[in-house]
Amino acid sequence: MAGKPTPGLDHYMRAVARAAIAK
């Protein structure tokens, strides 16, 4: 992913990665 997608998508991806690590 070059650059930065929409803020909503960025926040969603961060939340997903965080949840994956938390689990």
TrEMBL record:
It comes from the Bacteria. This is Uncharacterized protein. It comes from Burkholderia mallei (strain NCTC 10229).
